[in-house]
Specification:
11 helices, Rossmann fold, globular, single chain, about 300 residues, six-stranded parallel β-sheet, four-stranded parallel β-sheet, alpha/beta, about 35% helix, 12 strands
């Protein structure tokens, strides 16, 4: 709510407020919202409501996020008392929302463990595009698309590819994205940052997309984009990636952070083109479908 003081006063009181995230707000903002009695809904794009370590990188079970051991691992010292207080406050505030939206079944399961409430699933959508004409190549080209950050696991792929290249010297690996300092290696090309407009071209330059995340993705837009581009995928068996990919049907999965396991999957793609070249990538949801879901939800809450 805002009030502008000049020649005229304006009181703005929305009929509905959508809280997309509260990571940069004090929790007191949610208290003010609840006290206002304005109807609101809240989306959970990651696991921030469970822990400020939104990727939950130091716990598999969300209920472990309130232990001293987790607090020290995630934050460097024991802040478990504050984590308990935070959970207690959110346990009181979240039921006041007219709707709670999660982006994947995985996110829903994690939230239900800590806050046993009703959640509505509205998965992300991506813009439709048609990949450019695929570039001819005599070698298989693996590709990483995303930020070159440690938690995205790109160094795991770089290590795994080095193992594979020693056995299959003609294969290539292309990295698209900005971030950490690249490590030069035979057969590896770092292509720098990209925009969404580049995706049709990127998907024409690689044969298999690799998503080696070492943290728990709560959805993974890159997976949807690679499927939209018609590509088979290899992904970490972790978080929402583990849910969304059926091993041997819509992609291949490997143990997260295990470069030897990933190398084995890359070898499989090289050695079994008769199988994966006949796969039909899963159909990702589109932005239009996601918007339609939200429009229905808003209409429901407003009426």
């Amino acid at each position: 709510m805002t009030r502008q003081r000049n020649k005229e006063n304006y009181d703005v009181r929305p009929d509905l407020i959508h809280v997309q995230h509260f990571s940069n707000w004090p929790l007191g903002a949610l208290q003010v919202l609840v006290a206002s009695r304005i109807r609101f809904l809240i989306s959970f794009h990651d696991l921030f409501a469970i822990t400020p370590d939104a990727g939950m990188t130091h716990a598999e079970d969300p209920l472990k996020c309130f232990t001293a051991e987790y607090a020290v691992a995630a934050f460097g010292h024991d802040v478990s008392e504050s984590l308990h207080a935070r959970r207690k406050l959110l346990t009181r505030l979240l039921p006041a929302a007219a709707a709670r939206v999660v982006v994947s079944p995985y996110t829903k399961r994690m939230m239900e463990r800590v806050y046993p409430l009703t959640y509505r699933e509205i998965e992300y959508g991506v813009d439709e595009f048609v990949p450019s004409q695929r570039l001819a190549s005599d070698s298989l080209r693996f590709g990483f698309v995303g930020n070159l950050r440690v938690h995205k696991g790109w160094r795991v792929l770089a290590d795994a590819f080095g193992q594979v290249r020693s056995r299959h010297p003609a294969v290539e690996c292309r990295f698209y994205g900005a971030g950490d300092e690249p490590v030069p290696a035979p057969g590896v090309t770092y292509c720098g940052g990209y925009t969404r407009a580049d995706l049709p071209r990127i998907c024409s330059e690689i044969d298999v997309a690799v998503i080696p995340s070492i943290f728990r993705e709560t959805y993974c837009m890159v997976l949807s984009e690679m499927w939209m581009g018609g590509l088979p995928v290899a992904v970490s068996d972790l978080g929402a990636l583990a849910d969304r990919v059926v091993d041997g049907v819509s992609g291949r999965k490997f143990s997260p952070g295990d470069s030897a396991a990933l190398a084995g999957v890359l070898d499989w793609f090289i050695e079994r083109p008769d199988i994966w070249r006949n796969w039909r990538p899963a159909r990702p949801r589109t932005t239009t479908e996601m918007i339609a879901d939200y429009e229905r939800l808003y209409h429901e809450l407003l009426t």
